[in-house]
Amino acid sequence: MYAKYFTITQANKLLPVIKEEITALKDVQAEFNELWKTYQQLKDGNHVATDAGRIFKLESQLEFMEILAQQHVNNIQANGALLKGIEPALVDFPSFKGGAEILLCWKEGEETISYYHDTKDGFSGRRPL
């Protein structure tokens, strides 16, 4: 049982908001990955005591990036959508079809929601609406 259920129209109307959140999440992820590489290089190298401040700053930035990423995930979930993947982005929207609970399924690159799957099947069970 989910907190919110969508019609296909409602889910499609929400897609622009979801896409914005996913784009922002991917931007945060890319920046995190770059900072992580720098952090690992400093930690793995023969750093001198003067690098301690730089390492601390990177750790703080990485922690902040994690908070930002979680905020974008929370924003998606607050709308009632279920983020299932980031690369590629996969989002499910709880719904009903013929009285049965289903998940409307959107994959990044698709203009609108055109597929669904049973709640137990997952992405591999996608079928056209």
From TrEMBL:
Name of protein: DUF2203 family protein
Highest classification ranks of the organism: Bacteria, Bacillati, Bacillota, Bacilli, Bacillales
Organism of provenance: Alkalicoccus daliensis
Pfam family, one: DUF2203
InterPro entries (UniProt xref): DUF2203
